Amino acid sequence: MIKSLAKIYLPLLGVLLFSVSCSDYLDVNSDPNNPSQVPAHSRLVGAITTANGAAQWRGTREITGVMQYGVTKNTTGSNRNAETWRFTASYFLWQNAYTWALPNAVDLAVLGEKEGSPHFVGAGKVLQAFLYGLLTDQYGAIVMSEGYDGVSQVKLTPKMDDQQTVYQNIDKLLDEAIVAFENPNNKTPLNFSGGDIMYQGDVEKWKRLAWSLKARYLNHLSKKSTYDAQKIIEACTKGFNADGMDAEFAYLAGAQQTDENPFASWGGFTSTTDPRYFTYSQFFVDLLTKFPVTEAAFVDPRIHKIMKPAASDGQYRGLKPGMGLAGGQGGTGQFTKEADYGPFSKSGFYTNATSPFPFITYSEVKLIEAEAQLRAGDAAKALVAYEEGVKANMRKLGVSATDIAAYWTAQQADGLAAHFNDKTKGLSHIMRQKYISQCLNPETWVDMRRMDYSQAIYGPSLTRPANINTVVFDANDENDWIQAMVYETNEQNRNPDNVGDNSEKYRLRTPLWWNQP
Amino acid sequence: MGKRVLILLLCCLSLGLQTTWAQAVTLRGKVSTTEDGSPLPGVSVAIKGTTTGTLTDEAGEFSLPASKGNVLVFSYIGFLSKEVTVGNASYLAVDLAEDTRNLNEVVVTAFGVKQDVRQLGYSVQKVASKEITDSQQPNLVNALQGKVAGVQVTNSGGAPGASSIMLIRGGTSLSGNNQPLYVVDGIPVDNTTAVSQGGLSAGTAPASNRAIDINPEDIESVTVLKGPAAAALYGLRAASGVVVITTKKGSGGKAKINYSNSFSFDQVNKLPTLQSVYKQGEQGVFNPNSIESWGPKFEANDPIYDNLAGMFKTSFTQKHDISVSGGNERSTFYASASRFDQSGIVKNTGFERTSFRLSADTKVGDKLTVGGNLSYIKSSRDYVSQGSANGVMGAVYWPRNDNMADYLNPDGTQRNIVSNDNPHWGVINKPFTNDVDRIMAIGSVVYDPFKFLNVTYRLGTDYYTDNFKSVRSVGTTIVGEEKGAISQSTTNNQITTSTLLVTAKKSFGEDLNMSLTLGHNLEDAHRQTASWYGRNFIDPSFANINNVLETDRTISQNIQKRRIMGVFGDLNIDWKGIAFLNFRGRNDWSSTLPVEARSFFYPAVSGSLVVTDLLKEVGGVAENDFLSFAKIRGSWARVGKDAPPHVLASTLSTSTNSFTIAPRGFISNVNTYFGNPTLRPEFTNSIEFGGDFRFFKNRVNVDVTYYKTSTDDQILGTRTPPSSSTFLAYLNGGQIDNEGVEFMVGVQPLKSSKLTWSLDFNFAHNKATVKNLPGTLDRIELSDAWVAGNVAQGAAFLGGSLFGINGNVWKRNDSGQLLLDDNGYPQVQSTLQAIGDRNPKWTGGITNTLGYQNFSLSFMWDVRIGGDVYNGTENTLVNSGLSTKTLDRGQTKVFEGIIEKTGEANTKSVVLDQNYYQTLYSKQGYDFVENGGWVRLRYVTLNYALPKALLGKTPISRLQIFATGRNLLLFTKYSGVDPEVSGSGAGVGGSGSFGFDNLGVPATRGFDIGLKASF
């Protein structure tokens, strides 16, 4: 009996033991759908595209209305909320930058380090610096030192760094990137698998991109006592120094819709009844048809490259933000038919399906340099840099040499050189050219805030939108402009202690650190 | 692996065959029931004082070697044992009387093991075949509504094939699946409810729960194992309870043919009331192009259309079931075929199910029984878009001066208003279809080498293919899909289970019996889904993925694999049938956990004591007429749970979404969870106490249970702040406690030969409290449980309910005063807050069964007391201006509160106009939370069995006709549709989406007639 029991139980025990050791049977948990890790060279393209088409795009989708480039048609509907400053915690640059874009840039640097390819470390850090810069310039304090690092487990309540700290860390990231690009011991070239869609593996250009961004973020500190014009000029010199260096890539036509430039279609321009932006603003049209300071009429040849004229009569017109089509040209009530305006989407250089959406351009670097020279008191050098900045942008847009020359001659005749002897007038030239040459880039919003939305800088055409959000903004104070963004609802709900006061009144109206003396 | 187990098993079997007995005289006999003389198979026949014994076969017959003077003990679960002394006769006819104390008290617990409820130290409840079919529900889960104490079943609406949610004793998981494990004939089967099929949002096209594939007519009984104690043997997947389904089997004797049918008519049960004072327009001005009803008042002679009711029709359903069963003394078989064809109350909706089933077993020699069953099911479902104004309930957005039913323009295109599809156009031109082909196969070998030893091996698989298709025809107003779009997915799902059980029984003296089961279990689950999407049909009339440009197509694949191995032991000790003790332990190894944490053990202890018998035993207290039986029971158990598959590492992806650039290469995968390589198993601990008391010769039964469960260190899929660079992460943390009581009362007020009446009450109360959350989280939100307008969602709140509602509220100061803006209007706070608790205070049912001669009448009241419902439909109606809440439009009001800016009490009067209702009132959820409790007559069924005399000369041996009414009475305070709602269906984990009225197809009421015949 015991014997037969043993005969039965022993094999059973065998089964159990066998099964226990049978760990192969259980090794089915590695994700069969997606890899956990691929080499850095396979991550570069995604890091670049998402920094652009996720982060920078979502950082400008609504801000395009705030910057008064684009205006919506209807006087109702959620599209109009942006241009009338009705921002809530449902503004989503935050998540798009932090989730879709940032981890790719961080992983790139971590993988580059691991693989002995410092050039990827450099590219990763340049993109990180750009993303943190984009975020802090819209929100102020942001999560940076406790953010995603590619190694640690997820942090449930990451702390915010104040903007001053963020700026120091951005500058540090760019310094580290420059060191990494200069490292001669690099195993895998950047464009190993064709992922460097910006520079095709040209490390020199990447390094100049790092210097260019250094110049941009140092230049943001124009109201600070630490502002150092010479450092900016030095960075500009080491930054982009010729055409063909702009940090950008062409979007693709004929592929998936999200391969196209979002301003052309998928960014909310497909609705025939209420596209996100219907046409350009009269303010932008004015900048392209009048000279700074004198407001003398002169049609900037770039207008034909950027905009399409009205179908009705071939004229260039724009709307007043907040008034819709019903408000007519510049809010005058005249021209209230759709055909009186050229479209915003697919209108030209910036909003076609294949239009690039540059992070930063040679033109911007030269105009930064012009600003720094002007602030340093060297009007002549400022003028030289200014001329190159403007002309570089014209060349890029395909303006003919004759037209460029004619435009420049007219500018000079309008008193350009003399204007540069006055800081405000000089800045007016520089900022209006930056506005034109940085079309749709959220960097324009930084400039407008730094310039206090001044009419002395941007001309009399820059006014607050109609039908403004008076729950938050003072209806009677024309100087009460939008200053920053509300943190996203998901951050507010899940990380409330670190977000702090996220009321619209506080967030939208409080100037950022760099905009305070 | 399974193969090796099989080989081993064969080895075990061969051992038994070597054993032989010493022959005496062979005694033959037959055991039948005292009541009607029908043969009793499986009765244990043992010679007292020896280990010699046998079981009766399917014909109730037995033979065993015995000598004159031996005492034979006949025993069978549910019957009184009998002792017979062997005399000179070589053939014995024995009849056993049913033990009325234990009538209907045999339940199937783990792995097809039948157990006497008397022995159990925890609460289980059995629902018999008749109760299931009486309810006339195509979805087995719905058939259990109101039947089982502590089991809350919520059907997600009136669409044919809608999913049904079962929660047993609340929920234990904050983010994972809280639904029980479904087991058919000892093999776990799939009850997945797919979430967001074909890339559509969860609320647009909620899928069926796949238990709907089981034909209720094939079911012999359902036993619900409620707690971890009952579930421990099924392993980690049983942490939320087990629904043990036993299917019908053949029995010996003449072959029997059963046929039954039913024909049903359904209509919408309850619709919200819409205002009929104001017509189309904006700000009081008529506008024929507006979709809203903020226009002027209707004139006296204006037609007012009932567009909402116009969406629904009376539906027709028919069902046919045929089965054949029979067998001989060695073999039995059961075969069935069924056809269920249901049309919905909305045009172009329906559910069809065709199933075939074959079950057979045969004895090989005296000790070996080989059996198996095979089912093939084909389920098809047609349904339509819901959950937004673009779906089937779009009438809530349609001005009533316009006839929505007039949905075509003269040129054949859709006639709609502004940006919403006409619902009548939509139900024809935006169809969803779902086709499932499913096979369930189970093979078993039962071997009894000795009287004291049983070896059972069972191998089963459940495989299905699920084809989903959604078409948006050319002409839809959906942005980006104006030129048509198609979403499809194909899922292959398989669960294969191997179970080996070895049970040994031994008696120590006369009083102490022990049985020990050792088991081994393997489970392999595999699910693979391919999804594809295309838009811009080249030929507008042909909806097919091949009919779009390659650049307009996307495709993706998802595979999920999980393997679990378990070994377990189950020791039962029985003292004189008076006191019972049970020890269980199980160790699982799961593929989904890190190697170092994948093995985990969990034990359970339970015991019960029959107090009345104990008193008789020790004190000689005689049986009395008042208290006929009393038993107390208690248990402590722990059950482990693993992680979902493939969540230990973060992954990369090559796709984003339609608001983000196509990445052109690998990027961090934000669509899934942030990987966590440090996950540990989570455990649920439970204690349970209960008592079973019977009075007046068992005419009154009272069963009471108290339980408390605590699940801590949960494997939690939580939402994280975006600044962590992910939206979702898995981590260990959080604790949920469930505490509750259950009462079951059975009364037989009348029991005569002509008239019988029995009443069964069950009532349960459960409170699921979130005790702890990781980090500084104060809630766990569920994005799949968002409702239209995004002002409320399901969420679990720290210190509050697991089944909370997270929603927007008016801005208030700390003392609760409204903070008003400068003009005196209230403001909506930007952060969400707990605005309701969907958990009912009490759930219960009262089932009445009356019999009078050949008539029987049964009806069931389903009661749910408390439990909030978020009325998303009403919220939409406020926006559209069709809500009766907006009838005070134009009136002025001074809101009681303080002006936020100045801090002064408000005196300003404001107009309650369109702007107020659309931009303020409907943006907060608090005012849309309502009491969703109900009392409803879930069903009433009248049966009539034709007298045998009438059937005498026909081949029909039994003929019953019946009529059933479902949901005929509904008493509720809820203002909207039938409050039995679930916004996104049963697929939503954690807190779930029940209690969200989100523009779904409303529940129905109906009427069935049919017959049942045996040949």
Query: Uncertain spans of chain B, ≥5 residues at pLDDT below 50?
Result: 1-23
Instruction: Find the CATH topology of the largest domain in chain B.
Output: Maltoporin, Chain A
Share of residues in strands of chain A: under 5%
For the CA atoms, what is the radius of gyration of chain A?
26 Å
Structure explained in plain terms:
The complex is a heterodimer of chains A (517) and B (1015). By secondary structure, chain A is mainly α. Helices cover 47% and strands 1% of the residues of chain A. A two-stranded antiparallel ribbon of chain A has the order 1-2. In chain A, helix 3 (44-58) packs antiparallel against helix 6 (93-115), helix 3 (44-58) packs parallel to helix 7 (118-139) and helix 8 (163-182) packs antiparallel against helix 9 (203-219). Chain A is globular. The termini of chain A are far apart. With 1015 residues, chain B is mainly beta. Chain B has two domains: 2-98, Immunoglobulin-like; 124-248 and 259-270 and 313-391 and 430-803 and 838-867 and 932-1014, TonB-dependent receptor, beta-barrel domain (Maltoporin, Chain A, Beta Barrel), CATH 2.40.170. In chain B, the strands form twelve sheets. Chain B has a 22-stranded antiparallel β-barrel. In chain B, strands 10-15-16-13-14 form a five-stranded mixed beta sheet. In chain B, strands 3-2-5-6 form a four-stranded antiparallel beta sheet, with no helix packed on it. In chain B, 52% of the residues are buried. Residues 1-23 of chain B have low confidence and may be disordered. Classes of the chains: A mainly alpha (517), B mainly beta (1015).
